[in-house]
Task: inverse folding
């Protein structure tokens, strides 16, 4: 992929790539990333903190959450439904990693 600038540019760039949903740089590079299955999103809201997003995602039942405090995730909160993905070849699991948010 080409070099990227701002996160917004990265989102626009990744929207045209093989990543199913907009992904931040490095989030979705893994060949088995949930982004490649179209069931992941990287979220940022200007008026809501990343931890608020992570906690809301936990309460909403997302099985994959990576946010502040997890390497590469201090500028967005990644959410996915990996538990429901039977095509990724990994054992079904809930994985929450946002240690700065207490998750
Ligand atoms: Zn992501």
Result:
């Amino acid at each position: 992929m080409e070099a990227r600038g701002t996160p917004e540019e990265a989102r626009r760039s990744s929207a045209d790539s093989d990543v199913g949903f907009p992904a931040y740089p490095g989030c979705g590079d893994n060949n088995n990333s949930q982004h490649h299955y179209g069931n992941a999103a990287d979220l940022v809201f200007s008026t809501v903190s990343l931890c608020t997003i992570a906690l809301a995602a936990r309460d909403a039942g997302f099985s994959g959450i990576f946010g502040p405090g997890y390497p590469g995730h201090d500028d967005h909160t990644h959410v996915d439904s990996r538990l429901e993905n039977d095509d990724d070849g990994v054992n079904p699991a809930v994985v929450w990693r946002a240690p700065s948010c207490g998750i």
Remarks:
- Residues 23, 27-28, 35, 40, 42, 78 surround zinc ion (CB under 6 Å).
- The chain has one domain: 7-101.
- Residues 7-101 form a domain with the Muramoyl-pentapeptide Carboxypeptidase; domain 2 fold (CATH 3.30.1380.10).
